[in-house]
Amino acid sequence: MIQRRAFLLASVALVALPGTLLAKPGVKDGKRARTVRLFGARAPVEVIEDELGVPHVRAASLHDAFFGQGYLVARDRLFQIDMEHRRDMGRMAEAFGPRFVAADRAARLFLYRGDIDAELAALSPDVLECARGYVAGVNARIDELAANPAELPLEYGILGISPLRWDIGDLVRNRGISMGDADDEVRRAQLHARGLLDADQLMAPLRPAWSFTVPEGLDTAAVSNADLGLLDPANRPGGFEPLQEARFDPETRWGDRFALGSNAWTIAPSRSATGRPILANDPHLGIGRASPRHMCHLSAPGLDVIGAGAPGLPGIMQGHTDRFAFGRTNFHIDQTDLFILRTKEGDPGRYWHKGAWREFETFEDEIAVKGAPSERVTLRYAAGRPIVSEDAARGRAVAFATVSMLPGANMRFAIIAINLSKDWASLRQAFKLHVSPTNLHYADIDGNTGWQTIGFTPRRPKHDGLFPAPGDGDFDWTGILPVEDMPHVYNPREGWFASANQMNLPADYPYRERVISFGWSDPFRYDRIVEVLRGQPKHAIADSVALQHDVQSLPARALLKLLPANPSADAAPAVALLRRWDCGIEADSAAALLYEMVMPALSTAFYDRAVPAAARELIPSVNLAEMLGILASPDKRLGDNPANARDALIDGALAVGWKKAVEVGGADPAGWRWGDLHRVSIEHPLTASNRAIAAAFPKIEGGRSGGDGTTPMARGFNPRRGFDVTHGASYLFVADVGAWDNSRFLLLPGQSADPRSPRYRDFYPKWLAGEMQPLWFSKAAIDRHASTRLVLAPA
């Protein structure tokens, strides 16, 4: 049985909102279409906003369709995209002062230093036209606000700053700084040097099974956290919490990396109740700030696509065209490596590579600083790889190889190419631009379904990426794995497939010859999705809606199997309550609240028992699936009498969890409700650091939620930070392929990040209730549900 009160509301998602229908298209409350004149548009662009706030852009060219999207994103989310743009381009200090210089230096180290014009020239002309249109649209809104500052987002007046204009070249330069798995490589090297490498399995189990091999010539004893250099967020702090990660400890950062995943499934006509394919997708991203997705419908000759895009990134990431639906989840690819370079004694500007001393490529840059003199910085590269740390005294430097810095790694254009595709064959050509690791789901109006893993996968001829490697050239990458050699399937015999960030390399995939990754998310969400789909011979749209809101917990089932038959007096109340539970993490469940108190206590006790004391400095946490597997089949890692040790751990955790539940829920278990702790709050990212921002942007709060990070309805939290939801699916989407007006969506909390807008929080109650809304696509449906009309006319 699919559990979630919202399942009872699924029928709501299958009918259009009653709303107030318009007497005539283009008229509402006596107001006709409004026209604004903007530089950058080439012809009039019509924007129809429907009753749910989704804008439908109708343009005469690809350029103008994307102009419309850029303008609308800047209208609704300018501060959000401006801050991300400033951060990525290394231009925070010029607006906010010296405390951002280190972060700016790090960001500029990760700007692409190759031939920008050549990169742009290599793109398809249509893709480039769309990108130019998007940039022009963003700039048009910025220009419009410059002429009418009263309409600026409130942050600009409070902070005393102005938005940055965009440039098409910045879409190439901006490659983004990310640690990847560099900290994992350093940790493993340190564990190896201490003879404790086996303990790493407790935190980061290798999937598929693999044996460690230290690269020849690597001195693991010389590897330290200092080798991470600028990759470590602590070495590039900023002044705003949401713009950097330094305040979070390594365990939190590591856990969040695997928490941010997604669910997707695709149902073929043979298994669909509609006789058409169904594609469902709910990306799990951060919750607590403005939505990481923005809705839009783009129409022009050769283009008709609707869904959610990432603010600041041209195109639609999850949605459908007039021909096919597409969704995405994180695939796991090891896309980074640390290379340890030997620098020349007395001349640290040279490093040893392929039998010769070579000079670092060096760039001098100047960082403007508000209220202080500009600062000159020197940025070094080895064969295009950023130098993240240097120690001349030790003759040592560390280069960070990342696929994002390679020529052609133009991820910011990849979504456009996907949106312009017409079928599976043209999509697979578009995938060649796609850098980020992704499971791409596909279903078309002809009944075909497909799954393709995409993302740049480096070829490593002599190592597996699990440790740093010597930078003498022997371990250099030798190219990128072609899309055709990545795992994929087309029209699978089973009639459905799903992905939820689990290890999904096919059994016959030659992973030893084509190393992709050994780090994957735990399979709990995927296993529950499979359990449901296998039990549904005919899957309906309502079934997808219900499954996206399913809160059945497989880790809870595993715990219940281990409950002691003869618990101690302190654990007995917990055992009694849990034995009556159906393992649904419901908002109104007392047992769910108790379970969420027991599991952290069990993890802590297991950690103290299983992780060697000498390794605890390097291993801050244990993997949930690995822990549950060991508890189910205890071994020597729990001591000489592992079964007895296991039973004692569980009994003790139950007692501690009960005590904690009383502390947070009250003395009477009848009054416990998981949702009373597990709440959904949305606030401005600068609320904590700026009182004026806090006053201007009212917090959106009060909503109670079920689920946790392991349920299909992912509502993750970190008990170290409290019980509020911190990640999950702020955007949900179900496509009825071919009968597009039947498709459904949700977006938390709304389209706009401006509290003056009626779209600031209008979806918050709908999202909490799981009330999926219609995603109107046909011209007739859009005109029937039109709310406002806007014409963007050339100035």
SSE topology:
Elements: E1 34-38, E2 45-50, E3 55-58, H1 62-89, H2 93-96, H3 101-109, H4 116-121, H5 125-147, H6 154-159, H7 170-173, H8 182-193, H9 200-203, H10 250-259, E4 262-267, E5 278-286, E6 294-300, E7 303-309, E8 318-321, E9 324-330, E10 336-344, E11 347-353, E12 356-359, E13 361-369, E14 372-382, E15 385-391, E16 396-402, H11 414-420, H12 424-430, E17 438-444, E18 449-454, E19 469-470, E20 488-490, E21 496-499, H13 524-534, H14 541-548, H15 554-561, H16 572-579, H17 590-610, H18 624-632, H19 642-665, H20 674-677, E22 679-682, H21 691-696, E23 700-704, E24 715-716, E25 727-729, E26 731-736, E27 744-747, H22 764-769, E28 773-774, H23 779-784, E29 786-794
Parallel strand pairs: 1-29, 3-6, 10-19
Antiparallel strand pairs: 2-3, 2-29, 4-5, 4-21, 5-25, 5-26, 6-7, 7-8, 8-9, 9-17, 10-11, 10-16, 11-12, 13-14, 14-15, 15-16, 17-18, 18-20, 22-23, 24-25, 26-27, 27-28
List keywords for this structure.
795 residues, alpha+beta, Penicillin G acylase, beta-roll domain, eight-stranded antiparallel beta sheet, 29 strands
General description of the model:
This protein has an 11-stranded mixed β-sheet. Strands 4, 5, 21, 24, 25, 26, 27 and 28 form an 8-stranded antiparallel β-sheet that branches. 51% of the residues are buried. Helix 1 (62-89) packs across helix 5 and helix 5 (125-147) packs across helix 11. It has 23 helices and 29 strands. The chain is α+β, with helices and mostly antiparallel strands and 795 residues long. The longest helix has 28 residues, at 62-89. Among the domains are: 182-249 and 335-405, Penicillin G acylase, beta-roll domain; 554-677, Penicillin amidase (Acylase) alpha subunit, N-terminal domain (Orthogonal Bundle), CATH 1.10.1400. The model is unreliable at 1-30 and 242-248 (pLDDT under 50).
